[in-house]
Design brief:
Chain lengths: 79, 150
């Protein structure tokens, strides 16, 4: 399954891009996206970041589909 | 930004700094709302922090807009549920805002001061903690660092 993943701020600096299509294994249910992303970008282990799927922060495993909006969020700095 | 489910949320984002004139006009617009007895305004200003000897000259704000609009909407709804407010306006900058300029404008109005004070503090804290806005601190020598709310 191919999914589009977006990166912001210091994470876009790390990946060198604002978004990309990633091929991920699995049926789209209960996927550990964090582990997959950490395997692809080990530098994420040294950063503070959150995973958002369809605009909701996800802590553990989650359902992911081809149309899911998957976004890596660095620390917030609003205000 | 009034609120029916399914209705598109009005964005709180404005390009660049929020001008003192804009703030003054917002205050003036409330003079017809004579049930209001108390306004509370919070203004966030870009601070010229010094980081490892480099001074911040501006912060360039970016956001995950779709989620930010959604979270701003949630914060707004929650605040209306929690506090007795006549109205509420929130504006946040995107793009570059120089040190000394305003990047956040929260404006709440109520019949009495207690609700306005409480709501203002609550809304600002929620924005800082929950809205996916990112800040690139720009230094005079063209280097930068990513800001993090604490």
């Amino acid at each position: 399954m191919k999914v589009n993943v977006k990166y912001f701020g210091m994470i876009a600096d790390l990946t060198g891009k604002g978004s990309e299509n990633l091929e991920i294994a699995g049926q789209g249910r209960s996927l550990d996206m964090r582990a997959m992303l950490l395997a692809k970008y080990p530098g994420l282990a040294n950063m503070s970041w959150k995973l958002a799927v369809d605009q909701e922060i996800v802590e553990g495993s989650c359902d992911v589909h081809e149309s899911s909006e998957i976004v890596l969020l660095p620390p917030f700095a609003g205000g | 930004m009034k609120t029916e489910t399914g209705k598109k949320h009005k964005s709180v984002f404005v390009a660049g700094p929020i001008s003192p004139e804009f703030i003054a006009n917002s205050i003036a617009k409330h003079q017809v709302k004579t049930d209001i007895g108390a306004h509370n305004i919070f203004l966030g200003q870009v601070r010229a922090d010094s980081i490892e000897g480099r001074e911040v000259v501006a912060i360039e704000y970016s956001a995950y807009n779709e989620m930010a609009d959604k979270v701003f909407h949630e914060i707004r709804e929650e605040a209306f549920g929690k506090f007795e407010l006549s109205c509420m306006h929130i504006y946040h900058s995107l793009g570059a805002v120089k040190a000394g300029e305003i990047c956040l404008f929260v404006f709440v109005s109520s019949r009495h001061r207690d609700m306005a004070y409480q709501a203002s503090r609550h809304i600002v804290e929620e924005i800082k903690a929950r809205v996916p806005i990112f800040g690139k601190e720009l230094f005079a020598d063209d280097s930068y660092a990513w800001k993090e709310n604490i």
